[in-house]
Amino acid sequence: MDQRFGEEITYLPNAEIQKMRARFVDAYDEPPSADIACNKEQLACLKHALDNGREPYVDMAVWGPHGTRLLKKASMSGLNIMRDGTFMNVELFGPPNIDLWSGCYDVLATGCIMLGAVRRPYLAAYKKWIIRLAAIYGPVVWHLLYQTDVRCRSELMQEVFQILLAEHNAARMSKMPSDFDPTKPWDAVWKRVLEMKDWWNDEFERPAGLINSRVMAVGSAIGGDVQITTSHQRAPAQNQQPQQQQQQQQQQPSRPNKRKRNKGGNPKGSPKGQGNGSPTTTVIPCKICKSTDHTFTQCSLFDPNHGKGKGGKKGKGGKGGKNGKPW
Fold this sequence. Notes:
Layout: H1 14-28, H2 40-51, H3 67-77, E1 79-81, E2 87-89, H4 98-115, H5 120-137, H6 142-173, H7 186-195, H8 197-212, H9 218-221, H10 237-251
Antiparallel strand pairs: 1-2
């Protein structure tokens, strides 16, 4: 039930277990199903904690559906073999998401109802509150929400119990009525913790809002007293988008960088006749014989005085400049 304690307990007799089952049938009109049922070890542990004045706290890392299977799994995975051949107990981590937490909490609710510790409406209201917070703030802050739940059930409920007991004793001394029953205190405690909105705001809602707005990191809000397992945990949608974009960028072929071109059509800074960085030479054919071996000034048919008339003027149809010089 709790990794912090290693106490010896006594198994419950079958007659007492039958009475506990009858309480559950009165609340639900049917016996508990296999997914939410408490086995005899879980019932004995929970009753032992209540009889000794402790809060009905259970560690979700070692408490959950199918308690017999979970007991074997926890006993094997909670031991690490050392170099000298001895075994050392290690801490088991809590549920990684709200779905697994809900399954563990349903078993706790079954045990509380069977033992008559907490009534059904307050157990259902607490579960609904945790699921609502998980839906509003998302899986990114689940570790923080589970830490808040653990602190509520293990620390706040014990503190609220002492407050209610003090108020009850003060009312009796003043001969005032009090609806608090010290023999069955956890029903009122479960109700009171849900009314403490300031505590939930300080422990979870304010830091969760800062984390979702990326003002605060998740690690800065985690105290280290509560850990969750990372197996079977869904990745947040906000972390999947950059990975998908990165994969798409890797799949796209790389495009060459475009170089600026000048008015001549050549890349900026490249010599004439070169394009796209390739050293190609452009040959201009002769205007007279259309040969590509030479230019028109080197052609044998080239006449430097062609088109010039008498007195330095150009021939028929030609235009001359002033003093017989061409334009």
